[in-house]
Amino acid sequence: MKLFFTLLSALSLVSATAQNTLVSSGNVFEGEPFLAVNPQNDQHLVAAWMGFQFNQKIVIKSVVSLDGGSTWSAPVWQAHQQAGNSSADVSLGFDLNGNLYMAYIDYDNVSFTNGAVICRKSTDGGLNWGAAVVARSIASCPNKLCIDRPWIAVDPLTGSIVITSTNAEQPTLVQAPYHPYLAVSSDGGASFSLQELDAAPFLAGNAITQPMPSPSFANDGTFVALYPSYDPSQSILPRIVEVNKTAPSSFYTYQTAFQGLGFGTSNDTLKSGPNLALDPNNSSRGTYFFITEVFGDPDIAFIEKNGSNWGAPSRLNNDPQANGAIQDLIWADYDTDGDLAVCWRDRRNGTLGTYSSASQIYCRIQSNQAWGGEFTISPIVAHDSILLENGNDFLNVQFQNNQLYTLWGDVRSGSLKIYLNRYNQNDSSNFVQQIPTSLPIYPNPSAGIFEVPTVCYGQVFEVSNQDGKVVLKGNLEHQLDLSSFPAGTYFLSVGRQQFKLLKN
Description:
By secondary structure, the protein is an all-beta fold. The protein has a domain at about 450-504: Sandwich (Immunoglobulin-like). It has one helix and 39 strands. It has one helix at about 1-10; strands at about 10, 15, 20, 30-40, 40-50, 60-65, 70-75, 75, 85-95, 100-105, 115-120, 135, 150-155, 160-165, 180-185, 195, 215, 225-230, 240-245, 255-260, 275-280, 285-290, 300-305, 315, 325-335, 340-345, 360-365, 370, 375, 395-400, 405-410, 415-425, 435, 450, 460-465, 470-475, 480, 490-495, 495-504. The strands form ten sheets. Strands 25, 26, 27, 28, 29 and 33 form a six-stranded antiparallel beta sheet that branches. Strands 2-3-32-31-30 form a five-stranded antiparallel beta sheet, with no helix packed on it. The longest helix has 9 residues, at about 1-10. The radius of gyration is 23 Å and the shape is globular.
């Protein structure tokens, strides 16, 4: 009860736009968010991200909500270990006692002469954070820069903390062979033991420069992680390797989850980090998501495990195959009842065939092991050049008690900021857009020119005003021009679908 009132007193209202709540408050750069939901209270959320702070470059910022994301506390930020450092790649995890752990990088991102994976602990729900503990340093792995992407996972049985990481993308500084890495704490984050996660004959090898692992725990304490591997002496084909440790065993076991060509992408601009979701109540059931181009363009694919073995890859997004639409930014999570939610960034309603296109956030939910339809949780947002750079490489999904929380960054306001969507799986009144047969046009609102997706070309249309009078009709082309009409609300009818258009 004391914690509740302490948190409540620190909360302040942050503005909301439709179904999306603005979480960050900076006006320069706020990217790569992570979200944690208290396992004892799905209204208690903690969000963290990397954001600009005057005279501090990029720091890790965090906020707290006690009302499911409607209102948030003022952001707090973590001081650097050394002057001139920068921070990135934050992740969060609660234990069952309500303690919250944060992992992130703090490093010299120019010379890479110093840097470490930092772990901090909060005992008051994320309002305050304890001292920085070095979980893994650059010095601990000479010529490896083994501190990138420090994903944290907390054992729900013992409270042990696992932080995985990979080699940084600095080819002149990092020497092969490459590895996924593991740092483990059994004393509440006070100290960490270090090891390489891969082992013969399942070594990551010399070809994949960043064999990033994706870790997770089941409720029975089973630890599972997947990572990519390619070494012709071990396997003539690239592999996705599963590493597994069953509580209370101290031994890791390995198996091939997938072997063959087709995972990953040659497009360096895509934010293509894979993601593992593990059923909390069944450690033999999990889903691994990644980007593939085997279906004709960059798509979201997945493999599923339901028992001892993994199945063949399947395509997740339902847009027309090989239509040129690019998907990336994947994250997924299982609910405690075994349902699965996944969200990603999608460009099917933008310019096809290019990364530099308008996009929006799409989601799907698998219930009773059957996939439902796609839905969007964000407006269509124009591309911005900042998205080509580092700093917006992932979004985050948390699924608990039928509440799907999605946290991501976009540039709808002119700068990169963090937004939250909350979707109740069982509430049909959710303000989300179900994907219609004929896709919506954009931008909306517009000064008069609305872009039309290619799948709508040639379809008969009518535009009527608020009085129901038809003011324009014909066959759709690449643009719908309402620039000669007065500002106001219009209705576009295409077949049996009707869309509201707002002209500024």
